[in-house]
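tool=predict chain=A
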Amino acid sequence: MNLHEAVAKPQGRKNKKRVGRGMASGMGKTSGRGHKGQSSRSGYARKLGHEGGQTPLIRRMPKVGFNNPFRKEYVTVNVARLETINEGTEVTPKLLKETGMIKKLGDGLKILGDGELTHKLTVSAHKFTKTAVEKIQKAGGEIRVIE
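tool=predict ok
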């Protein structure tokens, strides 16, 4: 199909409402605004969330929770994922990002202890769990905490 062959469906578009064009237009006299009241006046604009004096929905809903602006988001990697890395390699957040194990670093890297590690690695991260430390050291590896 080419652009010159494209044809709009006859029922596809409605004609624009021509407001304020006299009685014969079908929108005569009040032009669809009804009689009197705030919304019939010129310059009226409904404010977002306004419900005509009724308490707006956003104020009727209960306040829930708390968002800590100082919260740190750590990216987590399990010990089992480190098994794919060659023996003797120094594992850093930069290396994990380059290999595609993590997408973005966030506020830091935390190594979790799920899984097993069978070879020696030097792991540098911001935080470690106790089980992760035990498993890395048991495999003959070394741990470096990044400050």
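The first strand starts at residue 74 and ends at 78. The beta strands are 74-78, 90-91, 108-112, 122-125, 127-128, 142-145.
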